[in-house]
Specification:
Blueprint (H helix, E strand, L loop, with lengths): L2 H11 L4 E5 L2 E4 H18 L7 E4 L7 H10 L3 E4 L6 H11 L3 E4 L4 H10 L4 E4 L21 E6 L9 E5 H14 L7 E4 L6 H14 L2 E4 L6 H10 L4 E4 L1 H7 L12 E4 L6 H10 L4 E5 L9 E2 L13 E2 L3 E6 L12 E7 L5 E2 L3 H7 E2 L2 E10 L5 E6 L4 E3 L2 E3 L1 H10 L3 E11 L3 E10 L7 H9 L10 E4 L13 H6 L12
Parallel strand pairs: 1-10, 3-4, 3-5, 5-6, 9-10, 11-12, 12-13, 25-26
Antiparallel strand pairs: 1-2, 7-8, 8-18, 13-14, 14-15, 16-17, 17-20, 19-20, 20-21, 22-23, 24-25
Length: 499
């Protein structure tokens, strides 16, 4: 079995069913499959794509994203999704690294495409707007099995160059089946896609899962104004909304959001602050469940039970067919309650990093994926993330986890968002520093906030400085860029020297 065959099976079961809604446009499974065959034929016969070749998909959110993915799979090639938020130099790096010479793009990216083509003159482009005019052949999918490479999903690259996670057809099929069970997705469900389709969360949960299950996709045409988002979800009966915490925070201000037909909201991509969870569940009638998973695990690894106990602050339990463990630096599994690195094992775990044997060896050890996330497991099998390994601070040799400090800051009145990072300190090694976004129109006092934190945390965990800012730097999917905050000096000072 492979992705192309799985999609063809879903089409055979549901040819005339609406598969995707996009504004006033609706596409049936049969219509998307016709476009898939046309894309596959064009890649094979016009562009000379052969099995195993890499084909980049550089699109904004649009219906053609679906036949682009499955058309590449149908041709036996490897999908390389690219963020449309990247600069030409960043895109050129991914194309060079992956070896992709053919790009499926769109006319709105033409200006950026010129910049990329200047760097890579041999690039060939196929435009999504031309899909409808392509001939639809009667041809079968190239034979691929579960062990064959299906996609290179590049990590966000918040530090250094991004790495291409090698994910197979089997990885994705495993994760899709696990998500269907864990999220109780039914054929009548319609997944609301509000995040970029190139992101691993939307790639699997927002695209592959509904398409292979014979469910549906509601692809939001715009997120502004939010009133239009509500109208789209209501009009097209969206039932499951996967999104990042910042999306749910924005929805808190929408009074009639609770009237929507949603049955479930899933938060992923970043930690869900407890205060945000409590505010959301107080205001809205449908459940919000936090899940977790890095790109390297296709990506979903855990979620709080949909029909069982939800444990706020936890990333939940492993989804079916996936194992998690907490391990120390030597690879030894740690007991309940102890903090260590979160490790994942299962059919959803990547083959490794593309052309990066040393990075692969660091990440994959004895069948386990070492995620770089620190956390612990409680006595009931729920997992909790403490922080990223690289974000953990060492203050006088003692571990400080920024997320713990951020959770306290979020409890202070009129704090909208916060991020805690480490700045070098010649005496302590590192010192915690907080960047705080107040609620619009509210002035916060640094000393009052620090007093509030000091009453609730040990002194060594209390930030040495608090900077009030209008917003926090984020990448395309809403993840806070702590790398930039470590370099930031809003008061004009320079980083203290280290000894």
């Amino acid at each position: 079995m492979n992705l192309a065959q799985a999609f063809a099976d879903a089409v055979r079961r549901n040819p005339n069913k609406t598969a995707l809604c996009w504004g006033d446009a609706e596409y049936t499974f049969e219509q998307l499959f016709a476009l898939t065959l046309a894309v596959s034929a064009a890649l094979r016969h016009s562009f000379g794509i052969r099995p195993g070749d890499r084909v980049a998909v550089w699109l904004k959110n649009r219906p053609e994203f679906v036949p682009a993915l499955f058309g590449i799979a149908q041709a036996g090639a490897v999908i390389v999704p690219i963020s449309h938020f990247l600069k030409p130099e960043e895109i050129a790096f991914i194309l060079r690294d992956s070896g992709a010479t053919t790009v499926i793009s769109e006319r709105s990216l033409a200006e950026a495409a010129k910049g990329v083509s200047t760097l890579l003159p041999s690039l060939r482009f196929s435009l999504a707007e031309d899909f409808e005019s392509l001939p639809v052949p009667q041809e079968t999918a190239v034979d691929r099995n579960e062990k064959d490479l299906a996609a290179l999903l590049y990590t966000s690259g918040t530090t250094g160059h991004p790495k291409g996670a090698m994910l197979t057809h089997g990885n994705f099929l495993h994760n899709v089946n696990s998500c269907l069970l864990a999220l109780d997705i039914r054929a009548e469900d319609r997944i609301v896609v509000a995040l970029p389709q190139f992101h691993s969360f939307m790639f699997t949960v927002g695209t592959l899962t509904p398409m292979l299950a014979g469910a549906g996709i509601l692809l939001l045409k715009t997120l502004h104004p939010f009133k239009q988002v509500l109208e789209e979800i209501t009009r097209h009966h969206g039932t499951i909304l996967p999104a990042v915490p910042s999306f749910y925070r924005a929805l808190l201000g929408v009074a009639d959001f609770g009237k929507l037909p949603l049955k479930l909201c899933v938060s992923g991509g970043a930690p869900l602050p407890l205060e945000l969870y409590r505010a959301f569940t107080t205001q809205f009638p449908f459940p919000l469940r936090e899940g977790y998973g890095p790109t390297e695990s296709s990506p979903v690894a855990t979620v709080n039970p949909i029909h069982g106990e939800n444990r706020p602050g936890s990333i939940g339990k492993p989804i079916p067919g996936v194992e998690l463990s907490i391990r120390d630096e030597t690879g030894l599994e740690l007991p309940t309650g102890q903090t260590g690195e979160i490790c994942i094992r299962g059919g959803n775990v990547m083959l490794g990093y593309w052309n990066q044997p040393e990075e692969t060896a660091r990440a994959l050890r004895k069948g386990w994926l070492y995620t770089g996330d620190m956390g612990h497991r409680d006595a009931d099998g729920y997992f909790f993330i403490t922080d990223r390994k690289k974000d953990m601070l060492l203050v006088n040799g003692i571990n400080v986890y920024p997320r713990e400090v951020e959770e306290i800051i979020h409890q202070f009145p009129n704090v909208k968002e916060s991020a805690v990072v480490g700045w070098p300190d010649p005496r302590r090694g590192e010192q915690p520093v907080a960047f705080v976004v107040p609620t619009e129109g509210i002035h916060l006092e640094e000393m009052a906030l620090l007093k509030f934190i000091r009453e609730r945390l040990a002194d060594y965990k209390v930030p040495r400085r608090v900077f009030f800012v209008v917003s926090l730097p984020r990448n395309a999917t809403g993840k806070i860029l702590k790398t930039e905050l470590r370099q930031a000096r809003p008061d004009g000072s320079t980083p203290p020297a280290t000894t």
